[in-house]
Amino acid sequence: MNVGVAHSEVNPNTRVMNSRGMWLTYALGVGMLHIVLLSIPFFSVPVAWTLTNVIHNLGMYVFLHAVKGTPFETPDQGKARLLTHWEQLDYGVQFTSSRKFFTISPIILYFLASFYTKYDPAHFIVNTTSLLTVLIPKLPQLHGVRIFGINKY
């Protein structure tokens, strides 16, 4: 029993991505980002798609793989402060529906960006690099691994 805590989860950060309407909100947010970038007059369609992909993947990397801890007070003796949001997601269980969704969504965005840039080599390199920087940390083999000690503490 958590006295003085408004939630019933030990760590609400673990279930927030499974909450009702979260995936729709996420997709609408990405769509709105793309519409805003398309409305800027001096951005061409390929540049807008590449920027949408890069901004999305940068945000996903920061919020899921770089920031550690939880905004909630948790009675877990500080275990959550050592984990990224991706590692806390679904209590660390691999291949859940929310993990699959957040793995597939940058891939779909990458395919869309590649298609609308007509596979231009410069855009393709930027989009591929951006995709790899967000997909590699999601691999189950890298769960809890800190490469070169980055983000260790």
Automatic annotation (TrEMBL):
Cited function: Plays an essential role in the homeostatic regulation of sphingolipid de novo biosynthesis by modulating the activity of the serine palmitoyltransferase (SPT) in response to ceramide levels. When complexed to SPT, the binding of ceramides to its N-terminus stabilizes a conformation that block SPT substrate entry, hence preventing SPT catalytic activity. Through this mechanism, maintains ceramide levels at sufficient concentrations for the production of complex sphingolipids, but which prevents the accumulation of ceramides to levels that trigger apoptosis.
Family annotation (InterPro entries): ORMDL (IPR007203)
Subcellular location: Membrane
GO biological process, any: sphingolipid metabolic process
Recorded superkingdom: Eukaryota
Pfam families associated with the record: ORMDL
Ranges in a coiled coil: none
Protein name: ORML1 protein
Alphabetized UniProt keyword annotations: Membrane, Transmembrane, Transmembrane helix
Keyword Transmembrane helix on entry: yes
Main location: membrane
GO cellular component, one term: endoplasmic reticulum membrane
Membrane protein topology class: Multi-pass membrane protein
Assembly, per entry: Ceramide-sensitive subunit of the serine palmitoyltransferase (SPT) complex, which is also composed of SPTLC1, SPTLC2/3 and SPTSSA/B.
Membrane spanning residue stretches: 23-49
Span of the signal peptide: none
Family per similarity comment: Belongs to the ORM family.
